[in-house]
Amino acid sequence: MSRLIGLGGVIAYRALFNWTSPAMFTGTLLASPLFQLLFFAYLGRQLGVADDTFYIVGNAVLSASVACVFGGTMAVANERRFGTLGHVLLSPRSRTAIFLGRVLPYALNGLLVAAFTLSAGALLLGLRIPPGAVPGLLVVLAAGSLSCGFFGLTLGAIGLRFRDVWLVSNVATSLMLLLTGVNIPLNRLPAWMGALGDLLPITHAARAARALVSGQGAVPADLGAEAVVGLGYAVTAGVLLKVFEAESRRRASLDTL
Amino acid sequence: MNAIEADGLRRTYRQRTGWLSPKLIETEAVRGVSLSVARGELFGLLGPNGAGKTTTIKMLNTLLIPTAGTARVAGFDVVRQTREVRRRIGYVFGGDRGLYDRLSGLDNLRYFAELYGVPPREQRRRIAELLDLVGLAGRERERVEGYSRGMRQRLHIARGLLHEPQVLFLDEPSIGVDPVAARELRRTIADLAATGTTVLLTTHYMAEADELCDRIAVIAGGVIRALGTPAELKGGTGTLEDAYVSIVGEVQPA
Amino acid sequence: MSAIGPGTTPATTTGVRAERAIAAGASAARVVIVGALLHVKQLSRSPFEIATAFIVPLVQATLAVYLFRAGTEPHLLLEAAVGAGLMGVWSSVLFGSGGAIQNQRWQGTLEMLMIAPRPAVLTLLPVTLANAVTGTYAMLGTLAWGWALYGITPDFRDPLGFVAAAAGCVAGLGMFGLLLAATFVLLRNANALTNTLEYPIWLVSGMLVPISALPGWTGPIAAVLPTTWGARAVREAAAGGPIWPSLAACLAIGAACLALGTLALVHVERRARVTATLALA
Ligand SMILES: Nc1ncnc2c1ncn2[C@@H]1O[C@H](COP(=O)(O)OP(=O)(O)OP(=O)(O)O)[C@@H](O)[C@H]1O
Ligand SMILES: [Mg+2]
In chain B, which end has fewer C-beta atoms inside a 10 angstrom radius, N or C? Predict the structure, then answer.
């Protein structure tokens, strides 16, 4: 009981999304990303870094990250929080499949958030999105959300090693602001940062989405890159969870994981 | 004037459960408790889990407002004159929460000494005394997160005594405390009562209640089932435990 | 056994009464200061709090530096660093205050705080002040980071003024935090605002984006936010300008928040005693 509460306190600090509460959902997942978008759009305008389109589209794609990264982390962390991790890891069904499956709802949620942020941001700042680009955009947003979810799952698995799962996701989501090229064009960052950005989810999806909105048509290369990144995290998460499972069986120490 | 005077205390909890179709659950935790405790008396409150002991204590120590009834502690009304009441009471509850885990025991005591209005000049002496009393001297600079359960409990007790309260509420103070320390704790409690502190104690240890209490109320299902000195409850034969079991045995478990 | 504290013997003369009032004021000040220091200690020992207070602002500072460099005004790097630091202070106040009461409840310390013979404000102000103080880690970290990595020398126009402005800003935001803390428990679901209020306040208070670049209707909102004036005082100390009027405005608004928060807390406490929400069930 006290373990649950202790963790609860930490989670509530920043990462608790009581998604059962409509107010929480609206505030955290819908309003926050929109304000974030506005913040960077005004900052970008003021500094003359890039135009509104750059910021609106980029931040809209990124807006899925909070829902998906924390969601993916939660898929692992909640198991531990409620003391059910042992049961899940020891259940006869494929653990990896269970966890990967758990990411899907969060990714879907992220897609909704991103679609909302893009529409609202475009309306508020007066960006016209060509109707023909919409189907392509949905695919791109979905790819970004999914790879974010797997990224979150990987972080959740890593978080199992630390006392604090949420710390990892908090830092990761803020790094995504910096490294995904959503707010600073990647060629303005040092090369190593840009390279890191290429390994993160969202980076390629954001590039693809921008190309679509500016009417350059489909961009299979970027979309493919995003898919590869997502797949990479899915595999990594699967491997990590397997390793931890084996380890925890050996040490019979699921509780102290 | 009695130190504690409760008259027809009642307390109902309302809880909402479920978010799809919220339901209101009402629990009548305390259903008309009246008791008076004389100054310097050591009064025991016994009863099964969920009987309403903690709820009664929290109404008396101002943490809960009674649904009905009135109570006075040290002559002050517990609903309206909270400041006056709080100056004069100490509260110790069992369990390992309620402390600042990342602070040392000493820092915890310093903070609460300040909060509870111990004059700055007396704080150092008072804290040292209490650390000695509860056997934490020498460990006071360690962080509470490294304390054992019993050590935390001792720290709770020290905190409750910081401001030399006139009335002390002890809600299962001996939980998790080892036998030697529990005996010392009983001696401390007896000493406090002997020097004029009024003590209201709940415990699940019959021997503890028997040894310490001047009078005992057995509460079950939110009402007092029996009240008297340990000797009266035992009725000449058997142990307090026998008496307790026969009293609460008649009642449905909560 | 003697009862301690004022009010146990009747006041006789005005002189005694005045003395009492002074003693009570001193005692209240002590509670707030000692309390805030110990809460800072408690917060500073949490790896989670420290990491969020340090790492996230550094990432934001890096972001600000590259943004300003990429933009048309690379000479404003010091302002970018200071602005990023201020953002960190606000995050700390917001998340700390949003959870101030809730966290004490989770730790089981809320009951022990409320049972103290003090007005609720004296037991909770230290918590929100502590969050503002730990927020200065973000400011210091950001400045050090900018200096070490990007050669942004913190050559403030008015170094002493900067310290004063930062301290005043912390005090003002701590008092604002108290109002937030009280409001968040008073209104059901208001804690949803915690996550929501981070960016809008950064934006509207002009921490990185000048207020003049924003739509006109945000002006009045900015004018009543202590964050706006605190940020302005700090920036003026760094870049030059009249610090004191802004600082005074920040503290005055903070004091008004403190007064409102005090009233709200009386209500909060009473309600919590009715609904049994001081402790976890
Ligand atoms: N905050 C609360 N909300 C709802 N119900 C509560 C709450 N606190 C206590 N109750 C209920 O009130 C009843 C009395 O509880 P109380 O804690 O007073 O019992 P107790 O005698 O102290 O038991 P124990 O020996 O287990 O400590 C129980 O049925 C309990 O479930
Ligand atoms: Mg109890």
Answer: N
